[in-house]
Queue: 2 jobs
Job 1
Amino acid sequence: MRRHQWFLAAALGLGAVVASCDTTAYRVAEADSSLKPPHERQTAPDFELKDADGRTVRLSDYRGKVVLLNFWATWCGPCKLEIPWFVEFEKELKDEGFAVLGISMDEGGWDVVKPYLESVRVNYRVLMGNEEVAMAYGGVESLPTTFLIDREGRIARVHVGLVSKAEYENDIKTLLGQESGARRDRSGVLAADGGGATQRPLG
Amino acid sequence: MRLRVKLQPGYHVNSHKPSDEFLIPLALSWEGPLEAVATRFPEPKQERYGFADHPLSVFTGDFEIGVRFRAPGGKEGREAAMRGKLRYQACTDKLCLPPKTVDVRFTVKFQ
């Protein structure tokens, strides 16, 4: 065989992303620079996914809570840096009406994800994602991609890529303080406040 | 045969021997009449990134993968197509893209 010197340039990195998404899906254009004002927030697409125990979980189950919805994978280093922060947020804020939901995009499934979750003692619900839910959220491809969802199930902010713990804390604090037009005081009596934000300290 | 790979600035791919069990290694496989008897990857870089506690074994920029093939006998005067798959997973220091596979093809003429 005559030896052939073949130079083949294979361009890697950001190639063309060809995706066909439902036009009614949430459109993720770019990361948001700040929380969207309530009137600009779109409804977060509902989904049904399985958790590590095989139970079906819907986003709509969390209506009334502030949700941090995090798309991640075990092969994503920046994702894994954020996870201990989310564990802390879940522990400190769950009684304030906050929840973290992780959506794993690992092709290897629970065989890969469960050992990792146990090793880092994740205390929040992790669901196994699929292409359908990624498309519903505008074609999530870069990881981590994190959606902050208000108590009315609307997307308040999108983060694409690693951000600081403080930035998450500030956003969550603001959303926990924002009510849907009425607030319940500690005695349980409803009081109308015209939808204004009420700042409450964390912890 | 040498396969030249070009990464866009800011991106790295895990090397063929990543430093973490969860990381997806660079891998090259072939189908066709030639047998790949040796694959030579360049020496990986040990790079530090803000999201990791320890250096990662990665490739960045432009690099080449060398492959030595063995041809079967009795094919003189014939042509054959080789089809390869290069699997990689790329990240920046802030985000990661999902694992991808790129097709690699070339034709060889036996003499």
Job 2
Amino acid sequence: MNEYLLVPQDEYPHAPTSDMHFNESVYTNVFDHRKRLGGWMRIGNRVNEGYAEVSVCLYLPGGRIACQFLRPDIATNEAFDAGGLRVTIEQPLAALTMHYAGEVMLVDDPHILREPKRLFAEAVRASAKIEWQHVGCSPLHGGLPVRADQQTMFGRDFSLGHFNQHTVAKGAITVGEHHWQIDGYGWRDHSWGPRLWQNILFDRGFYASFGDDCGITLLKIANTNGSIRRAGVLFVDGDYEPILDLDIDTSWDQQRDPVAVTLNIRTARRAAFIEGRVLRCAPLRNRRKIGGEIVESRIAEAFTELTWGKRTGYGMTEYVEKLIDGVPAGYPL
Amino acid sequence: MDNFRLEERDEYAHAPGTEANYNESVYVNGFDPAQKFGGWMRIGNRVNEGYAEAQVCFYLPDGRIACQFQRPEISHNEGFAAGGLSYAVNEPFKSVGMRYEGDLLLVEDPELLRHPKDLFAKAPKVSAAIDYQLEGLSPMHGGEPTKADQQTMYGRDFSLGHFNQHTRTVGNIQIGDETFELDGWGWRDHSWGPRFWTNIYFYRLLIANFGPDRAMMILKITDRSGRTRREGVLMFDHEYEPITDIDLFTEWSDKKDPVRMKLGLRTPARAVRLDGEVMTLAPLRNRRKVGEEFLQSRIAEGFTRWQWDGRTGLGMTEYIELLEDGEPVGYPL
């Protein structure tokens, strides 16, 4: 990710291209390490399709998930503000806040997330107010490719521009009558360009922090032609070290969701061995009609505790993969 | 391994290049699944240096190793016969044989192999006669590259041409007053071109058979720039499937030798998981003087039992890597 163009203006929405599937999205995650609670929120403007993807997913103490998934109408790509979810940039490339005010669904058994109709029909609802501010504690990683033949992190059919950053995060979560102050660490990204979730054959992403000086952004991705790439950085002592190699071993549950991972990572400076244990997995789905066919991907979003040497970190394990005859395309590796 | 030229004449010795370190080598192995023993033999002609590397290494059922490492003088590259080893092509691409007649060193504690001077001084010597016959079970894999910029399996500073094949291997082995009839499976290769062992920064090579219809030849290799390639084939129902991904995790002994491996493999047709356990390991070394400096590589040769889908396989685990300040450069990943 060395040769990328990134300017403060890239924090704000870009002029959308004419691609039908143009997406511009901001994602942030936050975890309070002491309370072992947190979550992620994402707003993805699909202005050429007339709606935004709004996702809120909180992993609450006791294993409960509070979530919301909306597709509010939007008419412009001039802001990240839809469905109760809003992004404000306090200082470009340095600080932003994500706010949500609206309803969430309370889920005790995450299996119901596999069946969106049941989820929306049956889940108990509560009002929620979430606000978390991110202050970057790492360099920025990524941007807009500067050459036409340049490999991008997720591939150009998933995003053209993309940057991400580890953060120190503070804020508050109110769900119904419960209130938590958040004092922790996080990760955020911003992507723009054409995107179909189904353009990823499978990926395994790990986005976690071990404090304000240490973290991981790790991706193993297979594009639909089957070629597999490894990308990402280790965040060590305040610097990003590009990864040279990544091996992943995943343990699965009966539903083929990840329950534990081991990661071997090599950079030019070090070899790292990280073990992860999924604390709670939200087994999400994305469905889209392509041609006359419904194409479905599973998006396993797992709150994960990670151990790297003597340090403990928290963050997200994200397994996105097409379902082929109902089976995730990358399973069981 | 597309775009490789391979003809029947490549089974025989080639006209050597002018490189001082030109190597042309043939290697065979075979393991008996019922008796759980076997071994490998190799002749590497280095005609421009005036000698051959002649190596024999057998892993006996009781854990002893019977081995020999010689550098007999040779004056031409017209065949593979030196130091008591001889190699014959019975039928190109289908059948080869390798024999050894001479002394073997009997090693009860493989640690002795770390100290070649002690090995040759202290290990009991017994006379041996070994006859291995190998019949091809798989397609041929590899050959000589047809384009100047074509990636070769191990890199052009380790071999220009290289092909290999899984085999049925039968053998008659006399070591001292012990006789073993070997009836099993194996693998063979043939390489030619310039070679320094110390040109490999580090690699992990995993070769095994799981009966007549399933086998693997898996290579994960990293160069000095840190670039890692994943190569090889998985034989399934007698057909070779090219490897599209490898995830490898190694457990180590306190001597930093591989003890157990977890392996995830992907081909266009399948994703599989295998578990390997090194039963007996020969911790070998290669030293070479470059200028006033000695370069040293460890060559860990582990006789390994594998589990794949309820099937047991046997074969070789070979970890080659430069030692820097006495430390294997790829360790601990």
